[in-house]
Amino acid sequence: MSSEGEGRFHMVDVSSLTSVHPRAPRRAMLRTDDGVRIEAVYEPSRASVTDTAVVLAHGFTGSADRPAVRRAAGVLAERGTAVVTFSFRGHGRSGGRSTVGDREVLDLSAAVRWARDLGHARVATLGFSMGGSVVLRHAALERGPESRADAVAAVSAPARWYYRGTAPMRRLHWVVTRPAGRLVGRYGFGTRIDSRAWDPVPLSPVEAVPLIAPTPLLIVHGDRDPYFPLDHPRMLAAAGDAELWLERGMGHAENAADEKLLARLGDWLTRA
Description:
Elements: E1 11-13, E2 26-31, E3 37-43, E4 52-57, H1 67-78, E5 82-86, H2 104-117, E6 122-128, H3 130-141, E7 151-155, H4 167-177, H5 179-189, H6 205-208, E8 217-222, H7 231-238, E9 243-247, H8 253-256, H9 259-271
Parallel strand pairs: 4-5, 4-6, 6-7, 7-8, 8-9
Antiparallel strand pairs: 1-2, 2-3, 3-5
Helix pairs in contact: 2-3, 4-5
């Protein structure tokens, strides 16, 4: 997934605020290596503590403007890191259709490149649920200097594909694989889902982990996650050189991440 040549993304800044105040959020449309337009938001650090930018990857049916994503970005910005949030393909105002973790790696690469274009020498990635699987696969596959991550944290991520061991995951598989489910995804959750099956099946998160070193890696999971039980984070952490945080009383993904955890994540991503 090189960022060289014709695959280089195009960025169009659509914010009218940045010319007024240098610390105002900036909105842009990015173009991925396969030509999909991705909406993104840049929030400068409110403390100017570090030159690190954190690229935040939301979960399935999320978007850059969902309250939980904006809350997480705000906490990280207060801790002294700049933050890039974006909507995966098929989500929010982004184009294309969701491939539920496959080609979304290209979306993340475009967001990381934008962070570097904005002047950040160090860029970390933080992903939740589906976004967690994407940051793991991105770190394993993307080695280009403009698109790679310098530190990676995956929160509430699955270890393996096609997991149906919990009721929420069985409902999710119905949404993704059935025509009626995709209609629910589109009109109920604002998520446009690709009807085509994976071909080939992408590298799984647990297969990606051994390929990430020497990039620092953190796996975070709640012990009350209703989607993925604790064998998922333990499997991920055991697959490579990773730090593991098991959070007592925590549920699933960005909606369950409280301010204390987000602050700890920001500190880890800054110093890792």
